């Protein structure tokens, strides 16, 4: 077992090393508008501190944004009213960044001009750490190989498709940590520990909203689970867990709410515009784009794994993890499949949060629970 774990860990390390080698040759001026806008948010934080939450294009008096747009050959680079990824706010008579501030804040932690590479390397190393943690917790050859296979996949995804948007790298880290703690939450037998973990998981998912606004749907499965559990059991402990989760989730979103208040005039008003705020409408073209993409593989894997866990351990801690995951997958798929745009990374966060939760839920369950589940399945057969 020890040799197999060491070999699997080394395989994950080789993929990590390959990623780092590839990332070391990245260029921050690759011509993607989103990149420029995330880097502009980082520049505002470096220049103004927390006042950098104000993303008014008129604050580009040092010509950082125009220089970046000129560098990638953007037409009209000298006109702030034509800047990409910016939305006009007629009430305030200004143009503001549409993205929440989290990705820019994380980029601002690194030296200007050398921000993307260290962000991705650090995020990939953290994901590698969770891959090793999964291998460490595995107790059988099958579980070791499963943990290693998923760990290798998770590390690889840090380049493709995570490279497509700077917001995905920190989101992937949050998904790994939240998945691990979700397993801890529902497998814990101590009420106080469950309360603490519910708050931490809620805070983490709330913080992820600051990287990508659609990440707020990552909390949907938890809210559905806590609500339905209370309706069915009427237990005060369930209400308390749900309230702590919700309060922590809202607290994690505070930077985005403050940024919305500054830029859009209301904490709950959006800085997005155009196609991103169109009503939901299912399109066969969008649905087929997901079916033909790598994301579909992750979603199918998560769905099959969820169904298997529900059948094996219904009513147990692992069953609760599967229920949360099932609700999360359904709500997120309903949103993204009805969204008029497709990207190669939109459903990656829900796929990874689901798979990390299911992986650690399988690995951390007590050995006797595994044995009872197998015996139960054999008896039914």
Automatic annotation (TrEMBL):
Signal sequence, start to end: none
Residue stretches spanning the membrane: 117-137, 144-162, 168-187, 194-210, 216-232, 239-262, 282-308, 320-339, 345-364
Superkingdom, natural source: Bacteria
Keywords: Membrane, Transmembrane, Transmembrane helix
Protein name, UniProt field: Glycosyltransferase RgtA/B/C/D-like domain-containing protein
Annotated source species: Bradyrhizobium lablabi
Species lineage: Bacteria, Pseudomonadati, Pseudomonadota, Alphaproteobacteria, Hyphomicrobiales
